[in-house]
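Q: For a teaching session next week I want to show students how multiple molecules come together into a single three-dimensional assembly. I've collected the sequence lines for a complex. Could you give me the predicted structure tokens for the whole thing so I can convert them for display?
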Amino acid sequence: MHHQEEPGRVTDASQQSRFAEGEWVSRDGGLVDRRAFSSREIYDRELATVFSRSWLFLGHESQIPNPGDFVTTFMGETPVIVARAGDSTVHVHVNSCRHRGLRVCRSDSGNAATFQCPYHGWTYGLKGELRGWPNLSGWTPIQDKSQYGLVAVRCESYKGLLFGNFDPQAASLRESLGDIAFYMDSIIDRSDAGIAFLPGIQKRRVKTNWKLPSENLIGDRMHGHFSHRSAFELMSPDRKERLSKIIGRPETSRQLATVGGHGGILTWFPDALIDDPWLLPGDWTVYADAYGAQMRPLQENARERLGQDRFHVRPNTIVAFPNLTWLPFSSTLTVAHPRGPGECELWSYSFYDRAWPEPVRDELLKNYYMRFGPSGTFENDDIENWEEETYGARATVLADYPYTYEGELEQGMGAADARLPGMLSTGHSDAPQRNFYRHWQGMLK
Amino acid sequence: MSETTDKFFNELEGASDELARRVERFLIREARLLDARHYAEWSRCLHDDFRYVVLNRFTPELRGKLPEHSVDNEFHTGYALQFVEDDKASIEKRLQRYTGGLSFSENPAARTMRMVSNVEVGVERGAGGGHVVARSYLHCNRTRKDNVIEDYFACRKDRLIEQDGTLLLTQRQVLLNDTVLNASALGIFL
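A: Of course. Below is the structure for the complete assembly, covering every listed component.
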């Protein structure tokens, strides 16, 4: 083999020089080593760094409205309990008994006064304090109960969205979200009533590395028209026509990358379009004809709350580093809980604005089932891609042939519009993915 | 929307042996049509008002004794996020995508084998009566390419109606035996 003559191979000096020693992402972000998606060693480092220092999505306050309400979820592979205490404050604890490590809560959700370990009956309050154990044999396992509460996790809320962080040194949630919060507002802060989550979380095991959903949704504008052809074909000509007016056009399309590895795909509406139905929330194409008029007053309220600039922007996708992906058009967000380098659990939630009329909620939910979630005609083809992408990363003999993210590598991103925070591009670049992977690499150290 | 607490499915009665045999044959044939990818013929087993739901299951907190019919507590009813809800129109769209050749998750096509068992049949009386109700177990094995192997285990609660001498499905509730779907996607009818 003549390595120097093989374009694309990293042992080619020009490509090798793009990687810093010991890194899996090239300095410019345009190359990512396949082992980032297949190596157990890198995965273990991710758990110890990315999933131990980042703000990780836990749920929404509407899932636990009353004192004693709780949900269980995961931060990385660590099980946690998110509970509302008697004084209505929200507390997050690692779901593991301090005695022998068993989960003290083995259900998905409910209402409880205490959590009890099945082994010896150690019993904890909603704020994690060890209350005691059934004194059935006069047994005294420890002297000082106050030292053996459940391990507490930092929890902060952004407008009802709950996040946890294991790192006491980490910057605040608001600071860590940075510019991406501006775009989240345009979904979750449109009305006084705010959003709520539907009961039920769609959970499924997928044979994909956890980063690939984030990578795809943060900026991959190039796969849609190819990969999702079969799903687009199912739409009526009228709906396709409406969507084509805004999708993929340089005057309305933006890619977003922000500090912290976050990003997304945006639609930015010029003034001329501002009074068309384009800015109705969710996928208005399924309800605007029937219920658009009912939604108008809500729109005016949203414009006032958000301000003109924030109102003009519609996020098609938002990714909050590391593993929270949003599809606001389909009123859903998904967490990819890592389960080894080649597998993750996708947990999808559906949300609605409490101000929306019921028929609008129903139409949007129906639309969601058809497009995303386990039965989604778009998602099924995405999963096929991510699983094959993960499969391809197992070819460690190809370690010298990294995955490429070089779309518009030269142009990069800039502040394409002074009214919008973050770095923006108008094209079909891989810049948000490069930003995501450079941030990931920075955290691995 | 989705109601799971339904006494008609707990105590099925009133069906003659002949009706029970007809329903069982219907369920077996319907499974065969799906496995054989005879989708157009399968969709003729569905009433125009057909409603299909795969319910989302969770592990609830239990305090005290396990109550009667506690299985019903493991499903969200009303306005909730299920795994999928379909009507005949949305099902026709999904079938179109199966056979259109453009979907990378359906091409190469999946191989499926549905095993239907534990069939119980009853007749629903009272308001809107005349419905045949059936409960059955389903084990569906689905493989694709050389690296996808999935097994679905579910209880199904069906309502059927007789129209011009033919049985048609008007409703199907699928109660999976999982809380975490052990499959990447539900691109399949159970």
